[in-house]
Description:
The chain has two domains: 3-139, CATH 3.30.1330.60; 188-289, no CATH class. A five-stranded mixed β-sheet has the order 7-15-12-9-10, with no helix packed on it. The protein has a four-stranded mixed β-sheet with strand order 1-4-2-3. Strands 6-5-8-11 form a four-stranded antiparallel β-sheet, with no helix packed on it. By secondary structure, the chain is α+β, with helices and mostly antiparallel strands. α1 (3-14) packs across α2. It has five helices and 15 strands. β13 (246-247) and β14 (250-251) form a beta hairpin. The longest helix has 18 residues, at 84-101.
Amino acid sequence: MSRAFLGILAAAIFAQMAPGTASAAEYLFWFEPKEAHFAPERADNRGSLAATLALLKDYGTAVGMHFVLVGDLPAECLAAADCAARSLLQRRVESIRAAMAAMPDGRPWVTQLQSQPISVKPERMHAEVLRLLLRVDPPSVFSGQCPYQLQVTDPRLPAELELLGEEPTVWVSMRGLTAVPVSSAASMRVTPAVRNSGTVTVTQRLNDHDALLSSGLAQAQWSAGQLQWNADAADVDIDSASQPRDIGNVILPWDENPSSLPSIPTTASSATTSSTTTPPGSCRVHFVLRR
C-alpha cells in the first residue's frame, strides 16, 4: 500500500476530529450490536485500520509510547467475575488484531495493540465502538547522548488515555528512535534534563548558515513548518548555555536535591570542578516527514 494512499486514509481519520481538538486524532473501530466480528470491508473501518497500521510503523518503536484499544463497559461489569460484555469486548479486540495481521506487513505490529476496558456512565457509553488511545510513560530524556526531553504533538496521534474528558492536547515524549517521524502539522519542544541549563537553542544547519528555529530559557519550541526538508528529512541541533550544579562529578537532575545524594568528599580537585561551568554539549535529532 503506497504512502500517498495511507496519507489519504489518514486525512479521512483527521476529518473525524472535533473542532478545537486539532492536536489529537480519532481512530474508531465500529461493530454491529452484540457482534464480535470486526468488518474491515466497511469504509470507515478500513480507513481506521490502515491509518492505525501506518501509525504503528512510524511510532510503534518509540520507547514509552503504548497504543491501546479502549472499549466502554458499565462499572458493574468491571467488578464482576464473569461479565458477557467484557468477554465480547475482548473478542472484538482479537478480531481487530486478526484483521491487522491479515494486512500486508501487518502481522509484526499486532503485538503493539494493547487493550483496556474503561468504566463509563450508561448515558455516555458507546458500546459498539472501540477507540485507539495512547498511554505514555513519564517523560524521560531522548537518549544517553542527547540529555534533553524531546516532545512532539502531532495531529496523527490519538489522545492520551489518562486525559479522557480533558483538553486532548498530546505532548508525547520521544525516546529510543534513530529517526523521529512527524507530519507537516507537528510541533516539537525540548527541555534540558538538568536544572539551570540556561538558554536552550534549536538550530538547523543549512548549506551556508545555521537557521535559528527557537530559543528559550529552560525550553524551546518550534514547528515542522519551520524546517527545510531535504528528501523528507531534516536534522536539528539542540544546545544550551549550561550552568550545571556540579557536586564533585555528580550533576543534579531535575528531581534531585543535594540532601538526597550521597556525601562526596571535598578535595582541592572537587572544589575546582564544582566552581567550573561546563557546557553539556549539543546533540542532533533526525526528523522524517510523514505525508
